[in-house]
Design the sequence.
């Protein structure tokens, strides 16, 4: 609740707002971020069952704001119907759950005149940082820590707090952080520092102006459409040694690479990957998904 109140104020949501909602509500982005924000503000929602380009473009004239994953915005940009005029009435576009490329940020601004507001959160913490509502929304960054949220970047081995500009593990502390993993006290103890900071597993840095950038993961994670494939597929990847190929594509905007690119990476023809990266790669049109990042 405290995090939702912070977001309402920080993103300036009011009862006059109408949010175009096409996110899955089994994921924290769609449920706790989007839905709770509008409920707290007393605003309205246009609730779509999923992202469908025609439905989104049809509903857009009735909305004032939209929250989405980066693929929402790339799909909009791929349509000639998404013009500056079509988005002129919009107040705010927000992106999260996966990295938004600087190229998409730039193209979106050139097309619409709107700078997408990118933020950073997790299932365990909800929202941690955000680019400013009023101010410079810098491509490639997730902005500043939200009010009441403590954020630091530390050395992965020693836990020493690193100076600005150096890459390390992001740690979070605040009322937004969860109490622990359900019935997993040992796992909870491993993920928290003695002073209460949660170890996110995300690698990042803070620049001289205080903007936070996410540069990767210290733990294996594949992101597809703003969500993480779960179960046997991800586990098999770790077992067979092709995790570096998977995590490399995660840092480039998720699992949107062509199957041929995956095969090349797994065969060791992608820069920096050893020849033994993988023995077998299979391409599937669909796979299991579960919410992990916010």
Sequence:
């Amino acid at each position: 609740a405290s995090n939702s109140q912070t977001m309402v104020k920080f993103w300036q949501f009011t009862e006059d707002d109408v949010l175009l909602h096409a996110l899955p509500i089994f994921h924290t982005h769609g449920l706790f971020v989007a839905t709770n924000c509008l409920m707290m503000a007393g605003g309205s929602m246009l609730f779509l069952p999923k992202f469908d380009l025609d439905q989104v473009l049809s509903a857009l004239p009735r909305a004032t704001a939209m929250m989405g994953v980066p693929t929402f915005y790339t799909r909009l940009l791929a349509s000639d119907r998404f013009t500056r005029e079509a988005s002129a009435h919009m107040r705010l576009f927000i992106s999260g759950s996966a990295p938004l490329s600087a190229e998409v940020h730039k193209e979106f601004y050139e097309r619409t005149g709107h700078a997408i507001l990118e933020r950073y959160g997790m299932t365990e913490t909800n929202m941690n940082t955000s680019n400013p509502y009023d101010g410079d929304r810098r491509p490639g960054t997730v902005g500043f820590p939200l009010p009441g949220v403590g954020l630091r970047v530390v050395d992965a081995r020693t836990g020493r707090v690193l100076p600005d500009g150096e890459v390390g593990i992001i740690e979070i502390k605040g009322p937004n952080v969860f109490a622990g993993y359900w019935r997993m006290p040992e796992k909870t103890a491993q993920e928290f520092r003695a002073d209460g900071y949660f170890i996110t597993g995300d690698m990042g840095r803070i620049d001289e102006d205080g903007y936070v950038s996410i540069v990767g993961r210290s733990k294996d994670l594949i992101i597809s459409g703003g969500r993480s494939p779960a179960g046997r597929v991800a586990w098999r990847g770790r077992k067979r040694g092709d995790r570096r190929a998977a995590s490399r594509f995660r840092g480039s905007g998720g699992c949107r690479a062509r199957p041929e690119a995956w095969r090349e990476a797994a065969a060791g023809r992608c820069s920096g990957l050893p020849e033994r990266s993988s023995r077998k790669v299979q391409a599937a049109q669909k796979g299991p998904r579960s919410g992990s990042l916010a």
The first strand starts at residue 18 and ends at 21. Residues 228-257, 265-279, 286-292 have pLDDT under 50 and may be disordered.
